Amino acid sequence: MIQVKDLHKSFGKLEVLKGINANIEEKEVVCVIGPSGSGKSTFLRCLNLLEEVTSGEVIIDGENLTDPKIDINSIRSRVGMVFQHFNLFPHMTVLDNITLGPRKIKKMSKSEAEAAALPLLEKVGLSDKASVYPDSLSGGQKQRVAIARALAMEPKVMLFDEPTSALDPELVGDVLEVMQDLAKEGMTMVVVTHEMGFAKEVGNRVLFMDEGIVMEEGSPQQIFDNPQNSRTQSFLSKVL
Amino acid sequence: MEALLNSDYMKPMPYLLEGLLYTLLITFVGLFFGFVIGAIMGFGRLSKNKLIYGLSSIYVEIIRGTPLLAQILFIYFGLSQLLDINMHKLVAAILAIALNAGAYIAEIVRGAVHSVDKGQMEAGRSIGLTKTQTMRYIIWPQAFKRMIPPLGNQFVISLKDTSLFSAIAVGEMVYQAKTYYATTFTPFETLSMVCLLYLVITIPTSLYLRRIERRLDV
Ligand SMILES: Nc1ncnc2c1ncn2[C@@H]1O[C@H](COP(=O)(O)OP(=O)(O)OP(=O)(O)O)[C@@H](O)[C@H]1O
Ligand SMILES: [Mg+2]
Question: In what residue span(s) does the ABC transmembrane type-1 domain sit (chain B) (predicted)?
């Protein structure tokens, strides 16, 4: 589903990604862990071209994102993204947040888009919040709306960048539960996370990133119970 | 009652109200075009294109760095000479307000658009909207809300600025007052009424703006 080949990304002189290779299969849930500043967010953002790739290839669903002729907007609508700080549109109701994409990009009518949005709201457990504004939601509710908003575009892949790290601890569970349900339904997911419990339970594979490369990868058991790389070992000893 | 209506305070009123009409006309029409110019220049100031950024910055700096009276004289006399035309006074006045307010509005627009969280653009792009769509449906509505108080403030400033057009004999309120008291010798009474008429517009506007501002804050 996603092939990343020798991906490099620099900000000016600062090289943040130094040759990432990764293969993500359909329906796979890949968790990306690693210390702060290691380039996890940058990697994720390269997967829907929120960052311009410096060199290397990113192929999603058979389409090469680094091909200059590619229609970036159409790729983006097939790759959902969930941000740490939700980034809901504060001037729109929850329902409008969710239907904006389908209406403007898929050219659905308002009623069509709303009919499609309601089951999504139900899925994230917020059916009663359709007509409220994001301001009146808790962080966990906001993040679940953000997930519904991304799902409304019927993406083939969902990218999550630390979706729970801005949340109060007691609100984390609801969001993780929604993500777990998504995984069960067979959504292909790439999740940057500090929730090692989630990575262990839901992840099919874990990538450990440090200093702009994938230092180690393997099944959650391999990475958490029997890490080979000394960097992985010292990182895990700090977070577990 | 009779005495009040016939007092030296009330007698200039018909002239002043006629002037007020011009004052308001120049302000509203000027600010309408000023907003169009300001929006274009404001986006120019946000552009990554160096030429567009440079041109809009030069415009903003020239206008903000020179006095309005000089701009008015420049447009009315200078441009007329350069283009060899007879510019209508009212056209010159509206153009002057539009160009002058445009520069300040450009900064208002730039600031407001810039103040919208970067994550909003990313979220819009990530669901597949183009840059233009994201600007139109997501950034602009949020930015526009934040522009309302400073735009209202600019309205008050431009309204007062129209008094400078008495320098080119545009029949706005101050000019009307000057021609009136030149023959009646009642400048105190006449100018008191001029100030009163300005305040009748500016004070309620300011109060209203403060209320909006408070509402936007929460
Ligand atoms: N737009 C940018 N311009 C310049 N440098 C950037 C930019 N974005 C990220 N960086 C730098 O790239 C490096 C990697 O950042 P990134 O956000 O990918 O790390 P991360 O692994 O997600 O860290 P965290 O766990 O703190 O979120 C950091 O040194 C950061 O300062
Ligand atoms: Mg990050």
Answer: 20-209
CB contact under 8 A, B125 and A80: no
- Contact at 8 Å (CB) between A155 and A78? yes
A110 close contact with B: CB closer than 8 A = no
CA angle B113-B71-B73, nearest 5°?
Answer: 155
Counting ligand 1 atoms within 8 A of each CB, the residue from A31, A41, A47, A81 with the most, and so the one to mutate, is A41
Dihedral sign from CA coordinates of B183, B187, B193, B194 = positive
**Which chain B residues are closer than 8 Å to A47 by Cβ?**
none
pLDDT digits (tens, 9 = 90+) for A127-143: 999 999 999 999 999 99
Quick one: which of A147, A134, A140, A128 has its CA closest to A96?
A: A134
Closest ligand 1 atom to Cα of A43: 18
Q: Which ligand is nearest to the CA of A14?
A: 1
Q: What is the CA radius of gyration of chain A?
A: 18
pLDDT tens for residues A179-221? Answer: 999 999 999 999 999 989 999 989 999 999 999 999 999 999 9
Going by C-alpha positions, the residue among B217, B53, B202 that lies closest to residue B148 is B217
ipTM of the complex: 0.90
User: In this structure, what DSSP letter does residue A50 have?
Assistant: S
CATH number 2.60.40.420 given to B2-216: no
Domain spans of chain B, in order of start: 2-216
**Chain B interface includes A88 (CB < 8 A):** yes
Ranges of H-type helices in chain B: 2-5, 13-46, 50-64, 68-73, 80-83, 89-115, 118-126, 131-134, 140-161, 173-184, 187-217
One-letter identity of residue A173? G
Question: What is the pTM for the complete model shown?
Answer: 0.89
Asked if A46 and B96 touch (Cβ cutoff 8 Å), the reply is: no
pLDDT above 80: residue A1: yes
Pocket test for ligand 1, best of A8, A16, A193 (most atoms within 8 A of CB): A16
Find the helix or strand (DSSP H, E) in which A214 lies: strand A213-218
**CA dist A204 to A23, A219, B27, Å?**
13, 6, 66
Give me the pLDDT at residue B155, please.
97
